[in-house]
Amino acid sequence: MARRHSRPYALTRGAMLSSSKERALATLISQGPMHRADLARALEVSRTTVTNVTQELLADGMLDSDQGTALRSKLWITHAAGVIVSVVCRLRSTVVAVSSLDGRTTALRSATQEPYDLGGHRLTTATHLIEELLAQIGNPPVLAGHVAVNTQIDVLTGEIVGGRASKRWTGFNPRTTMEGALGAPVAIENTSRLLALAEHHMHSNGQAHNLIYVHLSHGITMGQILHGTIVQGSHGGAGELGHMSIDLEGLPCECGNRGCLMQYVDEQVVSTRASAILGADATVDDLVASANDGSRACRSLIADIGGLLGKALVGVCHLLDPDVIVLGGELARAGDLLIDPVRQNLHQRALPLNARGLSVTAASASLSETDVASAGFHILRSDPHHVSRMLHAISDRVET
Ligand SMILES: [Zn+2]
């Protein structure tokens, strides 16, 4: 996808960014649309100064405002300044979204994927979806992208180095691939950690100090949000809960170790155990539905899985001391049937200081694809490095 922005989004010489214009745009990018008076406070300048600066940006076409009186009017950044793009690769879908630089998601589209689709196929799908979305809004210039992939990835280089545990993505570099497609810098994240950030934004209005999100799916991945920020580890390898051993003499794992948690609570393992109760090809959804209908065998199986998960999470609590644990993925739809045994294990086994006040909940049922994309946009908008590159990209487009 070799993209060039179309003429309607060209900027004239008058749009040259002065330092005051840059500061105003940077504030709106990081904090979102705001009233002119609030912008003056954020910039610590007089209302007269902010009026002059914003009038220039309004004349440039990079800002727009509602019909309020001058200081009460709300300001936002238009697509003429550029847009940012989010890609979220999940087990059964690829979701792309486009947002204004100040975080207003303007378009979103998704495609169904098979769990075993290769990474290259997912990125090609994402590229086509982005092309369609951008065409709908007149092909504005893309200034940055955020890409979340459902595998372990080196967030610094974009490399997939996970070996057998990441075989569907082996040989692909999502960062360089999407930077080439977008013609813009791309930040990389693991999908489960992005879901953790989205849950953090939903949970208690983002007030959790140390939130752990556990995604129960094909593999078990954990995201930690500490004081509002994703904990990636040195290279992006943090959170591989599925490969934490709960039995050193246990079942062999594809990673080469024994007794990894995913060998006991992974979706495929749970489906196989559910099939022994419900018949061949039973899914996790079937298991949860039967348990909710009162099947004692299904409830017992979910409780057993909850106990194993709780056992693993005791170690997590001792290492990381969270105040909230959120369980997501298909199995988490079992709600308290799964969560109660997790809570019991944590209450019985964790040290008192770690267990006291700890909340364990299911993922927010209302969390939407837009919320997840917004978490990716939030990462770009709250990173001074990315904001600086966005401003440079705008300056580079000013006609000379
Ligand atoms: Zn393993």
TrEMBL record:
Question: Which InterPro entries did the record assign?
Answer: ATPase_NBD, ROK, WH-like_DNA-bd_sf, WH_DNA-bd_sf
* Family annotation (Pfam families): ROK
Where, by residue number, does the polypeptide cross the bilayer? none
Q: Which family does it belong to?
A: Belongs to the ROK (NagC/XylR) family.
Recorded protein name is: Transcriptional regulator
Query: Which source organism?
Result: Brachybacterium vulturis
